[in-house]
Design brief:
single chain, five-stranded mixed beta sheet, 7 strands, 16% strand, disordered C terminus
């Protein structure tokens, strides 16, 4: 009888430990799933200058004290990617290596400009910590207000003619690549592309992107 009780306790503890392992695995998978589909955000928010509009022109000075003109036509035929970020934005920090990687792959035609607002000393620490010194970094509340940036990280792609070609909230590599792809494909936005591709698909564009319909083409 005593031996039976011991064996039953041992079996019970094994079952408890196994169940705990399963629960922990499920929690981890739920976290991964939430990270992939949650407020990744609709890429385009219909505020500020619209895709296809001419961008307002800004005469600015970056934190390296270099003059910088944004939104004007460029004789060198290069486009500009404005990345709105903040030192207090966790998603921005997570996205920074991806931003640098994507822009490096498109360096033949695309320049990266970071923009934020706040105290210069805080921004300079942010630049040093995340090694952003090779890019222009401007502080401009006017820039964010003009594009009605309410959430970060946010991207605006302006082509060499000064036309806004794509914009939106970017939380993932797929979102960022969709901004670049929208310009390269000559469409207003990746939402427009997905809508034309799946006219009867009820899936929201952002969810479709999160599921890899577009982004898998560029994963490296």
């Amino acid at each position: 009888m005593h031996d039976a009780l011991v064996i039953s306790h041992v079996v019970l503890w094994i079952a408890v430990l196994a169940l705990s392992a399963v629960v922990l695995a499920l929690i981890r998978q739920i976290g991964v799933l939430h990270e992939r589909i949650a407020p990744m955000g609709a890429l385009t928010m219909d505020k500020g200058p619209k895709v296809g509009d001419r961008s307002p022109v800004f005469e600015l000075t970056d934190l390296a004290h270099q003059p910088l003109t944004l939104g004007a036509p460029r004789d060198d035929l290069r486009s500009s990617l404005l990345m709105f970020v903040s030192p207090t934005c966790p998603v921005c920090k997570k996205l920074l290596p991806i931003v640098k990687s994507v822009v490096a792959a498109e360096s033949q035609w695309l320049d990266l400009i970071f923009t934020s607002d706040g105290e210069p000393s805080e921004q300079e620490g942010f630049i040093r910590k995340y090694q952003l010194g090779q890019y222009s970094f401007v502080l401009s509340s006017e820039l964010g207000m003009t594009y009605r940036v309410s959430k970060l990280p946010y991207a605006v792609l302006i082509d060499h003619e000064g036309i806004v070609r794509a914009k939106g909230l970017v939380n993932t590599r797929e979102h960022l690549e969709s901004i670049v792809a929208a310009k390269q494909m000559g469409i207003g936005s990746i939402q427009e592309y997905l809508k034309n591709l799946h006219p009867h698909d009820s899936m929201e564009p952002a969810a479709a992107i999160a599921n890899g319909e577009k982004g898998n083409q560029h994963h490296g």
